[in-house]
Specification:
Elements lengths: L1 H30 L2 H18 L1 H7 L4 E26 L2 E28 L2 H10 L1 E3 L6 E3 L2 H6 L9 E10 L10 E5 L2
Helix pairs in contact: 2-3
């Protein structure tokens, strides 16, 4: 009985502390200008390349890359995540997108992270342009690259439509998944 009370109290305190931070972060994400988002995306890619050289190698063969420099996720049983990013073809920003997901289940806390999806085929780029976005897990095949897989991945073994790298994870929740995330074009 005492353990349950401690758990409920800990979850309540974590959420009380996290809710104001989440509201500010969501407001800041929505208020970011195109220029700020472009700069944040470039910095996020540089951070990813410094920490994961495989991502940099893959970027050299990618037709385009979707970069979401900061996604904020919060939840207590029901949760959600949101962030904005850019679609780049080479050094040029082509369009702007948001990333949204909802979830339910055993979860409590707040976290932030970034992710980049390297679109390797014309088919993947065409799909995102024609549909003005997509849900990860539907459409082009997206492989989420973790540290173990990255060690065995080389530019000669790239056969899938897209490769996603999650980076810069911070916060109180364990694990990150982008499966089921809805990516939609936004106007800037």
């Amino acid at each position: 009985m005492m353990n349950t009370r401690h758990f409920v109290l800990a979850v309540g305190l974590a959420l009380a502390a996290a809710v104001p931070m989440t509201a500010v972060t969501f407001d800041q994400a929505a208020a970011a200008s195109s220029e700020d988002l472009n700069k944040d995306a470039d910095q996020a890619l540089q951070t990813l390349y410094r920490t994961n050289p495989v991502a940099q190698n893959i970027s050299k063969q990618a037709k385009a890359v979707l970069v979401f420099p900061q996604i904020v996720k919060a939840g207590l049983v029901f949760g959600g995540s949101y962030g904005e990013g850019v679609l780049k073809m080479g050094p040029r920003v082509v369009d702007y997108y948001n990333s949204f997901s909802g979830s339910w289940g055993l979860q409590a806390g707040v976290q932030s992270y970034g992710y980049a999806v390297f679109l390797m085929t014309d088919k993947a780029v065409d799909y995102i342009n024609k549909t003005q976005g997509w849900e990860i897990g539907v459409g082009p095949t997206v492989v989420v690259v973790n540290d173990g897989m990255a060690k065995n991945l080389s530019t000669t073994t790239l056969k899938d439509d897209a490769y996603a790298f999650i980076f810069d994870q911070k916060g109180l929740m364990a694990g990150v998944t982008i499966e089921g995330t809805k990516i939609s074009r936004i106007k800037r």
